[in-house]
Amino acid sequence: MLSLNALSLLQWLSPAFPTGAFACSGGLETAIADGRISTGHDLQAWLSHLLCQGPLWSDAVLLAEGLKPGADPEALDGLARALCLSAERLEETLSLGTAFARTVSAATGRSLPPRALPIAIAEAAAPLRLPVETVLAHSLHAALSNLVTIATRAVPLGQTEGQRILAALHPLILRTARRAAASDLSDLGTAAFAADLASLSHETLQPRLYRT
């Protein structure tokens, strides 16, 4: 159902919103440089794994938890930081979350503190009273869309191929959003070792175009 609140969420999660996400690959640049991602099929498999068993899953669980009535953003923010395996992953979630909170505050007149990204989104979106699955699906789509855009340039893939991959991920995005909406903190956990190692080794990658 269309509403002003739904449009606000779309604005906050759009590529035009100034968070600096375009400079963050989450280790994807390492995987491309190492030759682990050289085709559209490789990219789709990598992103699917991030979504189901990687940091995007943890972020979705944390976001869902932050949207629950009575949530403790301070405690969740500390947990989100502790779950970051690498220094660059911590830098990424904090820099994006801080920019997100700062811009939402400036645009709405609210006062939102700097948080890890999923908690910043939760704090901003909670008063909108949108369905949790909707917030989760849009957030996951925004994260994947950014990574597809990065891969389109860095692999390189054609723009049409990038959009085909993103469209193919839509059913998985919806399933993951439903899972996360029904989750609690006991569902936190990842098994994305290749992505973790890529993030850890990115800081020594030369040359590199992306911050993470």
Protein architecture, described:
Helices cover 64% and strands 0% of the residues. The chain has one domain (28-195): Urease accessory protein UreF. The longest helix is centred in the last third of the chain and has 23 residues, at 132-154. The chain is globular, with a radius of gyration of 16 Å. Helix 6 (87-108) packs parallel to helix 7. The protein has 212 residues and is mainly α. Its main location: cytoplasm. This is Urease accessory protein UreF. Required for maturation of urease via the functional incorporation of the urease nickel metallocenter.
In short:
By secondary structure, the chain is an all-alpha fold. It has helices at residues 4-12, 28-33, 40-53, 55-66, 73-82, 87-108, 117-125, 132-154, 159-168, 170-181, 193-201.
SSE topology sketch:
Blueprint: H1 4-12, H2 28-33, H3 40-53, H4 55-66, H5 73-82, H6 87-108, H7 117-125, H8 132-154, H9 159-168, H10 170-181, H11 193-201
Q: What is the domain tally?
A: 1
| Biggest sheet statistics | none
Helix-strand topology string: HHHHHHHHHHH
Return the CATH topology: Urease accessory protein UreF
Number of strands: 0
Report Rg: 16 Å
What portion of residues is helical?
A: 55-70%
Question: Would you identify the regions where 5 or more consecutive residues have pLDDT less than 50?
Answer: none
* Structural category: mainly alpha
Assign the CATH superfamily: Urease accessory protein UreF
Choose one word for the global shape: globular
The CATH architecture designation is Orthogonal Bundle
Straight-line distance between termini: 36 Å
Oligomer class: single chain
SS field, number of helical segments:
11
Keywords: Chaperone, Cytoplasm, Nickel insertion
Family: Belongs to the UreF family.
Pfam families: UreF
Protein name: Urease accessory protein UreF
